[in-house]
Protein 1
Amino acid sequence: MPELQVEKRGAVAIVTLDRSEVRNAVDDATARALHQAFLDFELDATARVAVLHGAHGHFCAGWDLKAGAVLAGDAAQNIPRLLQQLDYPPDEAQPLGPMGPSRLLLSKPVIAAIEGAAVAGGMELALWCDLRVMAQDAYFGIYCRRFGVPLIDGGTVRLPRLIGQSRALDLILTGRQVLADEALAMGLANRVVPSGQALAAAIELAEQIAAFSQATLRADRLSALTQWDWPQREAMEREWQGGRECLGDALAGAARFAAGQGRHGEF
């Protein structure tokens, strides 16, 4: 699809979100395309590391609230359909997440190259990645807080595991903006580079990782990801069960966004 491109540079797969009119926000079709792109990466024996980034100066503005606003017009009919679509299938090994790949546990690493906004579900996509290379003027933020949209793509699971519960709750409860220097200090970003250089730096990092012996690297990575008290899938399922009751609020918030409220970080 034209809103998602995948290219190969040697052992590195580059996945590019390209929806400039909505700062690379993800709708249903884009989520499915992202999910398939990373399944294809997983199965590609010649690809060792993937880089996820957004075209036109932004990583990802999250779930496409304008698409959600359309569903809000008949929430009574659409919420049951959304629940059926997004619930965890009991026997699905690599389930589709609301933002696409956010429920996947891949055997190979993914690096986020972040320019501009990585907010709401876009921040959750960045958290799903193993490492985050961030431009100096880029920013994180759980901006969905002001629209009543829950974190259902791993945000409440991965963020505390990355930066600690106290810092995570600060970001989750306030929805405030986090600039690059603070993100680096708290461990949310792994590298900060000059504006416009995040993709090149992420590809360089990916090539360094791809040059290592892959069997031991992947074994160590998997051990690090699965050593928490709750297995990741169970933690993700518990997160979803908490957020699935909030879809009515989420659609109402999407309608407020489409009507012009809460833009540019305004609460």
Protein 2
Amino acid sequence: MKRAFITGVGGQDGSYLAELLLNKGYEVHGLIRSLNTQKTIWLQDIINNNNFQLHCGNLNRTTDITDLIHDINPQEIYNLAAESDAQVSFIEPEEISNTLAFGPIRILESIKILNKMKDIKFYQAGSAEMFGHAQEIPQSETTPFHPLSPYGCAKVYAYWMTRTYREKYGIYAVNGILFNHESPRRRLEFVTKKITNTLYNISINKESELVLGNLNAKRDWGHAIDFVEAMWLMLQQNSADDYVIATGAQHTVREFAEKCCKIYGIDLEWQGEEINEVGLNKETGNVIIKISSELFRPLEMRFLSANCSRAEHVLGWKPRISFDELIIDMCNFEKKKSTHGNNS
């Protein structure tokens, strides 16, 4: 039985990946900061699985990570531990960098210290934020990085260190450069979750308005379930390489909101222009969507569009869940959550 070690197992990607690996017959060990309900809410369906074990801790001490890897003795390590909101990184750049930039080094150093360079395969979670102000369209594995946030900068550092350990020490270490991937497990700080959650609350008269930033910002949104499968596939190849993972299609924040309104039975109409544009519920005449300049990114990423042909050709990976299906899944979760009184 293969053993896998997942850092950040309590998050969106970590929890889906743990489920995937358990279904494939793995013994799964997960690192989590604390065992409180909020941190383990997405693990409730697997927490009592005999092949799943949680460990408390973080990536701030190499000795702790080394001891943990020694005790678990995994064949695969997936580093998903991160504050995944780029905006937060402007507020706490040092703390973010400590985890995102130096956390991967501590894992790689541990693999080297334990002399497990030929025994452990390592996955590092990269991000489209690394491209930032993209130098070419679409972006591929050869596109130069130009990050626009401390988050993106830390991810670029981790990317190059992962490659350095691969080339210097022969560690099977890969970078997955993942574009936006969403799910019902997204936190409320993310615009997709904010939209699905708030618009549902508006539809049941629990809230009155949704405040957004740039409605015309474009993103490549996929479903996290598809993306964690790509992570796994990267560690199943004969040789290590880096891959861009995305759907290859772009959609605006406006489009995301419009599709949610249709699912919730809200007849949406736009009025006004630019910062003064609003979205009205035609049935009631109430303004339900407003724009705030304060929610515009200080440095907005432009023209992010992925070329993920390498993942398709080498990994045999393609997203199976469409943009519309992603939104339906997220909206249905809000309906189900309300019915069952779940406030997560």
Protein 3
Amino acid sequence: MQCKKCGGNLIIGDGVYVCESCGTKYSVANYYEDIDTYICYIESDHAGRRTKDSIIAQDLYQKLEATKIKSFYSRISVSDLSGELYKKACNAALANAKTVIIIGTSKENFESLVNHYESLYTGKIVIPVFSEMNPYDIPKNISAIQALDYNKIGSDIDLIKSILNALGRTSEADLLTVNNKHTGKKQKKLYWL
């Protein structure tokens, strides 16, 4: 993690982030005040193994960050935290995020995420992303939202464009469309219901 002021390395000490270079301090909650997208997923299965959901989340996180969409992916964003500080950081990031991506590769994973986070989705743009499952198995309370099939070619670009549009960064989304036309890829449209 880096200091917003000087770009220096942040370390955690006494429940706050402290910049090693300039000494600036950030409370855990305030550090995550400018999150554009919160990525919800199930990290581990019942045997403690990393899920495919987590791997998809990491791939999307890297692509979103490369496009300057400030994203929260707990495996990386708060890897240095645990316990109460971890929960505080996750809750602050989710509360401040403008968009929420819910990733699932099974009906059970989607239901678990929706049951746990549903009250926190209010007023946010929610984007379900599924892989290797029937889209009709997505829980009813989010199934009315246009879901994105991660296995479709170009789905990551569609997701990024949708998020940029939702954030009011339409010129950047339009630029992605122009760049894709030059590569000869067919364009798809996502419609939010």
